[in-house]
User: Fold this.
Amino acid sequence: MNEFFALHQLPAWTREALLSCAALLGTYLAGQFVTRVVCRRLALLARKTPWQWDTVVVEGLRKGVPFWSLLLGISIAFGFWNLPSNLAATLTSALFVLVALSATFLAAGIAGKLIVLYGSKIQQALPVTSLTQNITRIIIVTIGLLMILNGLGISVAPILTALGVGGLAVALALQDTLSNFFAGFYVTMSRQIRVGDYVKLESGQEGYVTDIGWRATKIRMLPNNIVLVPNAKLASAIIINYDLPDKELAVLVQVGVDYASDLPHVERVTCEVGKDVMRTVPGGVPAFEPFIRYHTFGDFSINFTVILRAKEYVDQYLVTHEFVKRLHERYNQEGITIPFPIRTIHMENQEVAHG
Assistant:
C-alpha cells in the first residue's frame, strides 16, 4: 500500500513513464513466453500431424509474435499518457498500419512457402517457379495495402484510377521488362517448358530448367554452367523438350557387321546384349524389348540401328557406354566381325605403245 501511495505522489510524467516502461516490459516478457514456450510446443505438435502447412504457419507466427508484442506494449503505454486527440489518433493509425503491414508480409511469406511445399500436388494447376511465387506474394501484398488504405478511410477508387493512367506511361517505359514478365507467365502457365525439364535451344545450348523468373529463365547445362535466356526470346524460340510428352526416350546406336555375317544370328545376339543392358544398367527401362533394324549396304559393312530405351535424357550416355562395351565383348565371343574401313582398288595393266 505504501508503494501505491508513493507512486501517486510522484509527478504525473514520472508515473506515466514508469507505467509505460512496465507495460513494455510486460508485453516483451509475454512475447518471449509465447515465442519460446507456446510456439515451441505448437511446433512439436505440428510435427506429429500428417499435414505440413501447420509447421509453416507456426514458424511464421513465431517470427511475428515478438514484433506484435512490442506494438501491443507501445499501444498500452500510450494509454497512460494524456495525449492530444489528434496525436493519439495519429499514433493509433500508425500502430494499425504497422500491425497490418506485418500481418500482410507474414501472410505473403507463408503463402510462398506453402506453394513450394505443396508444389508437387498443385503442379497441374499452378506450376511452381519463382515467378508464380512472386506473383502470389504481390497479390497478397496488394490486397493488404488496399485493406490498410480502406481502414485509414482513404478512398481506393481515385488511387486505382491514377495507377491506371500512370501504368500506361510505366508500361511504355518498361516495355522490354514487361514483355519478359508476361512471356515468363505464359511459358509457366502453358506448361510447355517446366522446371526440371531437359531442353535444347535452337542456339545449341541444352540443360535442365532450374527456374522461370520474372525476367529470364535459368538453364543449368551439364558442365554445371547456368544459361540465362530472356523469357521473351524463350517464348518465340524453337526448343526441343526431351521431357515431353514423357521423360523416357529411345536410344539409337549405329552398328555395322561384316558382309559374311549370319544376319539372324547377329540380330539375336545383339538383342540379347540389349536386354541385359536394359535390366542391369541404371537408367535403362527393364520392361523394354530392344530391337534392331538393318538399313544400309555400306562400303565395307552391313549397317543397322539398335533401338534401346532410357528413363531420361542423361541416362542415354551410360546406357550407350555399357551397350558398346558388352556388345564388343559378345561379338568377339560369337566370332562376329565389326570390319575396319576397307577400300578395294582394281589395277589394270595397259600396254604402252612406243612409236
Notes: The two ends are 150 Å apart (CA to CA).
